[in-house]
Amino acid sequence: MSQVEETTARALLRRLAVEQSECRVPSLAAAIVRDGQMVWFGGRGQVEGAAPTADTQYRLGSITKSMVAVLVMRLRDEGVLGLLDPVGGHVPGTPFDEVTIAQLLSHTGGLTAEPPTDWWERTPGLTAEDLFARIGPDEAKHRPGRTFHYSNVGYALLGRLITKHRGMSWYEALRREVLEPLGMNRTTLRPVAPHATGYAVHPWADVLLEEPEHDHVAMGPAGQLWSTAADLARWSAFLGGGGSGVLSAETLAEMGETTVVADGDAWVAGFGLGLQLARIDGRRLTGHGGSMPGFLAGVWADAKAGTGVLFLANTTSGVRYQLLNELLAILDEHEPRLPEEWRPVATDPALLALTGLWHWGPTPFHLLVLPDGKLSLNAVANSSRGSRFAPQADGTWLGLDGYYAGETLRVEADHLDLNTFILTREPYEQGPPIPGGAGEWHA
């Protein structure tokens, strides 16, 4: 199964084979997505005596969370809830009533990482009633909003919220509203053959230990789903912008906005609303990793490049997550994209008249008309203050990103009014538009 060139396919397969061999993985499957389609699949190792296929199921682990988050965003878009709502207004009775839904989605609610039970990933699950009856004030580890603290318990609470508002299990809602519309019919709550068995590989010998698998019930939204490379390729295409009616493009983009970043000199990893984020080798990636005893998985989408990548493995540990980025790098090296052809676009003369040089005080800005009819305003020497703007019905322009995201730009006869900041054709142009007045320049 390959739509890439033979040499590219060989290079991708070799990288996969190196990972399976060096990391001693019982079986390993991976795929590349381009323009919404799986263009390469590779499988190494064995499942029931044969190489894994694109239809072989593996556990997804925490990739499940990203799918649960889509359901929550659908509820938001329907007006059933708000992201700033305290979760206690929807699912009362836990010590986390004041934590907002957005904080649960982004792991900034301060909840404990794991439930106060036996190792939940290796033991049968509890009902929501039993689980939350065990959770007391000590399971609040940080002030809500203070820091990023990954919480499996938070997603159990979101699963309970979905069940309450949909009147059915979180998985049944997911199946009807997300999985079936995306054609992900091999993504299930429990394994359905053909599927891999989860193993731990002995650290000092080439022997295996079979890991247990259970229904985790209330903790299921944190990591229970099983899926295939073919289905996960559809998920990667969805994350890359192929909403297919499941979510609007605007909501999907909102999920991928940076809510919190990993602490460091420069951010390379962060979290949005249910999605992990990464900046690697110039790529901005959205997706999620997953692990459960016996399984590892990961999926990324690069919306700008129109590419995605994923892997699935039946091992408790060992796969190096840089595998995904290295597979993308091989694709870029062997089959780089051609830039889109430039073509002229008809533009309103009134917009053409706005283009060119403007000044905010002494600082020069360039105003451009984009091919889609939006405006782009950026400082000539320092682009930290800049945004794209979309036209509004009342004649104003709404900031879409950057410093002026959400702010209003008004076009006046002789100046631009950007949320009280005045831009004129000349620096500190004399006349009434400049608040505080403007004198003459002098030595």
UniProtKB/TrEMBL annotation:
Pfam name, any one: Beta-lactamase
InterPro entries noted in UniProt: AmpC-like, Beta-lactam-related, Beta-lactam/transpept-like, DUF7586
Beta-lactamase-related domain ranges (all copies): 15-326
Domain DUF7586: 348-425
Species of origin: Nonomuraea endophytica
Protein name: CubicO group peptidase (Beta-lactamase class C family)
